[in-house]
Amino acid sequence: xxxxxxxxxxxxxxxxxxxxxxxxxxxxxxxxxxxxxxxxxxxxxxxxxxxxxxxxxxxxxxxxxxxxxxxxxxxxxxxxxxxxxxxxxxxxxxxxxxxxxxxxxxxxxxxxxxxxxxxxxxxxxxxxxxxxxxxxxxxxxxxxxxxxxxxxxxxxxxxxxxxxxxxxxxxxxxxxxxxxxxxxxxxxxxxxxxxxxxxxxxxxxxxxxxxxxxxxxxxxxxxxxxxxxxxxxxxxxxxxxxxxxxxxxxxxxxxxxxxxxxxxxxxxxxxxxxxxxxxxxxxxxxxxxxxxxxxxxxxxxxxxxxxxxxxxxxxxxxxxxxxxxxxxxxxxxxxxxxxxxxxxxxxxxxxxxxxxxxxxxxxxxxxxxxxxxxxxxxxxxxxxxxxxxxxxxxxxxxxxxxxxxxxxxxxxxxxxxxxxxxxxxxxxxxxxxxxxxx
Length: 438
Fold this sequence. Notes:
Helix content: 25-40%
Radius of gyration: 23 Å
Largest sheet: 4 strands, antiparallel
Strand order of the largest sheet: 1-4-10-5
Strand content: 5-15%
Number of domains: 2
Number of helices: 11
Distance between the termini: 50 Å
CATH superfamily of the largest domain: paralog of FGE (formylglycine-generating enzyme)
CATH class of the largest domain: Alpha Beta
Number of strands: 10
């Protein structure tokens, strides 16, 4: 009872600080209040308002996700109003970050709870307008195939097998063993809920991962050899040494199939191995090593070591930076190239412990892993199902992303059914098939 009374007192202090626009003090009081009494809904609502007012969208998202995924499940009978607060806060935070598909999702869910909610209607209207603009200018980014689509079967030519030059120095060997996967708010204050909990994970079988992203030249070699039907409307660059972009998840799978035929058919690698996309666990292990670092080169962000984008996602007022370059900002915190750069441009200082380049920035990278599975990562729980057309995990950040999104633990999700982007590419691994690791 004493804790509850003290929690109410702290909440009142938080309310006063919030009214005075002292958001730091308000957050401190509200956090102390919920630590004493976790069922203090008023304090949770105050935290949402304070985080959002302070402009810390990532913390707002973390608090809203906790309310929706934990509190509302444990207290369904009393969480109605708080759930609405959480949805509204999450929608506004996603709006500030330019995540319009997430805004649409939250606004629709909020209208389901409160059909007359004026702000939800406004948010849904804004989201629909931005999504329509997105689909108009980037048609390949729209989901157009709801059913499962088989990867296009390709066949590597004899000429391609004869002409392919395998260079061992282009591949980094990653040994089996344990590493730290995920993050905590203590490790980085902008850690998001889907990066938690931090956990120790064992990589049961070692693999080789390409030190560099697959380049435009390499991908075009595949397209020309197989007459692969590739849409280039979202290319970030057609320069041969830049990363291949405008590649869907299925495009990447087809490329891996082609390269497997070349490497195995030429006797370069054993028949027990294939070329495939890395799992997100393999990607993170290659990006951070075993010491739990935040960025590939260490724990402190350095704009000189990567091709990142703009200082804050809140500067993306329209949500479509590629269409409105006037909204870009050039500053001391980010490199602001405003486009892709040649692979390995920041090597060796920007390399990961395994010697991989561009694992923070340049382009986001596809992985084989399905997104909608919670941590801890478990290989055998279905998240590595290659037959699914659900959303896949994308890693690494890109030339248009802020510092927080370039952390080695940051996770994005993109649809497997044809999503392509001017800021999305891939790298590959040589390893045993995922089914052989079980």
